[in-house]
Amino acid sequence: MSEVYNTFIDQNILITYGGFAKKYEKGEIIYQEGNTPNHFFQVIEGEVRVFCSNSEGKELTHYYASPGETFGESQILTGLPYTCSAVAKTPTVVIKISKENLLNILKDFPEVTRDLLFSFAAKIYDGASSARILIGHTPEERILQFLDKNKTDKDQQAKILVPFTRQQIADFTGLRVETVIRTLIKMKDDGVVNIINRKLYY
Amino acid sequence: MSEVYNTFIDQNILITYGGFAKKYEKGEIIYQEGNTPNHFFQVIEGEVRVFCSNSEGKELTHYYASPGETFGESQILTGLPYTCSAVAKTPTVVIKISKENLLNILKDFPEVTRDLLFSFAAKIYDGASSARILIGHTPEERILQFLDKNKTDKDQQAKILVPFTRQQIADFTGLRVETVIRTLIKMKDDGVVNIINRKLYY
DNA sequence: CGCTCGTTTGAGAGGACTCAAGGTAGGTGG
DNA sequence: CCACCTACCTTGAGTCCTCTCAAACGAGCG
Q1: What would the pLDDT profile of B39-70 be if each residue is shown by its tens digit?
Q2: Alpha carbons A167 and A200: distance in angstroms, whole number
Q3: Is B106 in CB contact (< 8 Å) with chain A?
Q4: Angle, to 10 degrees, between the axis of helix B99-108 and the axis of helix B110-135?
Q5: Whole-model pTM over 0.85
Q6: A137 neighbourhood in chain B, CB within 8 Å
Q7: Predicted confidence (pLDDT) per residue in B172-195, tens digit
Q8: In this complex, do B135 and A54 lie within 8 Å of one another by their Cβ atoms?
Q9: Best residue of B7, B61, B71, B74 to probe chain A, by most A CBs closer than 10 Å
């Protein structure tokens, strides 16, 4: 997710309005493509991977939700079935709250609605950036888009460590691992990235 | 866009708070990739195409904004530069309002904020669906995703006219026109779609 | 009729994917 | 301290299929 608006709903409010915490083991499914949405989720601890998969079982990562971030918001509000799955990447604690209770919060706390609106705007922006990644038909172009999107400090001249494995980059860009590896090597030769001891710097 | 939440802001409120109408000719650029966002837009008349392009100049359509729909919301709220361009597809009238004025509306009208929140949720959902289209590595899979997404009545058994040209489908799916055409012909032979007099039915 | 836009067909090349196998690092347990 | 295991990274060869470029056809419109 974009780091600009990392807004979230006050935990106390969530609990007061019927929200409850739930723990998930690593790898446990929180919800699955096709399911009917019942809850709004906010991460307290751990990390959640939200992704969708195509017919061949290839998976595209949409984003990782970290503590403080929400996920599954668009589905709970639209009521449309999940088009993505959410899986705990690490042992994770989330607060779940039903749609009805969430709507009560929105009614009683205009500032929460406002915060959420900004958070949603960031998600839309993020989604559009993801689409940008997926159209670049050159692997290099896709990877570059991905790296740029995830570069926290855009002005940083020095190359910094990219905290993703080749496989994760592949899952974000819709490429195969082998293609990512081969392309990164080419990019290293061109001086675009550094690879030191298998670690990637950009 | 998804048709579920076609919410928009009351025109009178927009005008009262400093919004103003502006006319664009067909093909005129409303904003461009890289620009700094200054306004929030709502379509009154006509149709606006929002798209981004890659280095080769290939364009990916994100969505068409019809009367009543908003666009460029995520950028005005996040303040991040445009990653897409918006162009009037037909002669178009939009209402523009500055960020400052928009924020005043949000402050004074909680229900507008709420409506916008739902509208944003639909946009996020829509964006995720677009990503789904782009990962299908078979052209048929991509086109099918696209057709399903745009099928208004999901339960409709009879095939209905698809109101998009081959080129438009190509721009939505990230494929080339020729590929779309060849794939559609194959899909016709398989009975998935109908093509009568060059018109596509699904 | 002539223009324009959309559709269609053909032939060819490039490149990402696929499958298969091997290499490397970091962590765990004896 | 070493052997093992697992997850990640790397390399190779071959196939398939989309893109590319080029050309032409069809329909709608003034």
Answers
A1: 999 999 999 999 998 877 788 999 999 999 99
A2: 13
A3: yes
A4: 120
A5: yes
A6: 54, 56, 58, 174
A7: 999 999 999 999 999 999 999 999
A8: yes
A9: B74
